Amino acid sequence: MTLKINSSQPTKNVCAPTKLHELTYAELCKLQVTKYSLFEDNKWFEYNPTPGVGKSTSTINWSMKLHDDSRLTEPQHSKRLHWAKVLVLVRLKVPATGGPPAPGTLGTIQSSLKWLISWMVKEGYNDPSELTSAVCDHYLNDLPSFISEVLDSEVFGESTVRVALQPLYDLWNERVALTRMGIRSLSSHPFLGHGAAKIAREIATEAMGWIKPLPDEVAIPLLNKTTWFLGKPAEDVIRLLDVVRDPDEGGIVIVDNGRGGTRTQLGGKGEQARRRRASVFMANFRFSTLEEDSEPWHRPLDVKTTGETGKSSDAQIKLRKLFEAVRDACAITIQAMSGMRMSELLGIQAGFDDVTGLPTGVRIDESSTGLYEWFVIRTVLSKTEAGLPREVDWVLGMRPKGTHELPHAIRALVILNRIYEPWRANAKTDRLILASKSGETLQTKVNKLGAMHAGKMHVAMKRFISNWVDLSGLPDESLHKSEDNDLIQWRESKGMIFRSHMLRKTWANYTLACDSRLLPAIQMQFHHLSLAMTEGGYIGKNPLLVESLNSVSRQKRNSIIFEMVIGRSAFAGRMGEQLEAATTILREAIANLPTSEKWQHVVEWADASQLQMYFSPHATCCPTRTSEMRCHDTVQTPVWVRKEPNTATREPSLCAGCACAIMDKSHEPFWVDRYVNNWVSIKLNEAAGVSLVDFRVIQFRANQAGSILRKFDVDLEELDVRVAKTVEETYASA
Predict the structure, then answer these.
(1) Is the pTM of this model over 0.85?
(2) What is the per-residue DSSP string for 596-620?
């Protein structure tokens, strides 16, 4: 129906504005809130005389999709919908301050309500009266990461923050009129009188680096579990999908003849026959036994052993849960091992390349040395900004040339293609990850599935962690905490505080530094990605990775200074000593503050000092004394262009004696290996009668590593035992 607009048409007033609170609910529903809309309408529209603007700028669609993909008009949101409508109504009819909103601001009002209500849904709040000062503070603290997750970007402006804050100011300003209308509003100013502009400036500048990586204590069990699912569990679920494929439909099947024997017949094509075949198939299905186990990894799906209701659909329900677990494990793996945003993940196309046999969009590039080959996928950005390319490359893994093992992320793509194969022919999209319809069982192969939405995928990832990753044994605090009791919320929520952006930060964190605390298989994967980034220059080609790495770099810098200030970690290197001296006053000033406040003060100090840090496995470079940077001295780089370390000449021996170098516990594994390997070489040559005069460089490296390790209180005698054992084993195998 086309709306005919007559700008001269007079406004219809059902009642005087001052009588709003006297209306019955039936009268309120029929109230003309604008010239063209009633209170009960799902869309409120006002004519906007501004030339060239779209209708959406002057429309509030109350059936708006919230950030969890539900709609505000759904029954579970009835309370939220009502007070939101009343709030806008009083702003239009009896505003407490100023005049009513201009027609062209209705679209912005919808956006602002969408932010607040979506967050309230996430946190379980229904009514404005529940938004106490403490809850408003929680909203404020959560807003940077919430906005980043929804926008799929850590970069957003002050205007976005102001829009997200505005409903709280409106609820406070209109509290008298709302109370008369039966809506209990805020009992105090949401932000202690501070204006939205000031708060927005602070939050917008803190967006980069606000979202932290997953704590090691969470990342390790999560990535281990997703990797575990990519093996035999995924293969079993793919075999189970014969329930959906129904290969016996219309073919010869063997059935019970009811007299203790069997007979052959054509498989029926009806729903009842399909369900009967599915029930028999799942009752007889047996899961694989993993190498490290003596029993199958999952118990049979037979109704008698699995079902709680005794219905034949119980096994189907369990199958859907297993299907979703494999799907979610694959999605988490791809994000965690590539740094993709959710939107790029969901934009990957289905299928395989006919020539290479690899998933669609994946290619293999050879490293500049010819020793490695890496797997790269090119995707089209779903969100672009001025100056950004339409297509970017994401490195998914790397392997030595001549080997045939697929990196985890590539295997995940292969599995996703295989588990969606039964529905692919009828799918409404060419996207790889499809959205399941509502219900508890998998759809039949004739269902036409569409593309997965980000909100549903995010909820599914949370559910995977809750169902499959055991966080019950987490301690109260992580090893590298930035706030007190930071792991309690992970343990008590069973991982439901997870956000997919944390996977990007985890990727950047480990790719940047190849954190030694990560388990070997995962560490190797991230190390390969780091090599691919260095040799292929993919960081510079993908501005989205620059954003993520810069953010993590800032966080890692803050973490280094924080651990120095609170005395948690020892430091070596000339710059480490200089920073310890420079932070003396800061250390004294924050000594008695809670951990979270200490962290905030350290961040402010580091930002004010404009410190930049560059990371490697052997040292961190903080180039503040540019005239003494040894990596640049070797090639006589002019001082005024020494903005960062020279990666072409930078090497451990140079860094160890450089005025800009910092070594901390994260570098300990490198220096331990250097100490042991060099001493093994020395001992072997001593035994062979080779003069050590010819091995002065090796001797220097061993002594240098030992000196650094003493700063970390490493037991060198224990390392010497390792050296002796290695030498002994070398001779034994000779």
Answers:
(1) no
(2) HHHHHHHHHHHHHHT---EE-SS-E
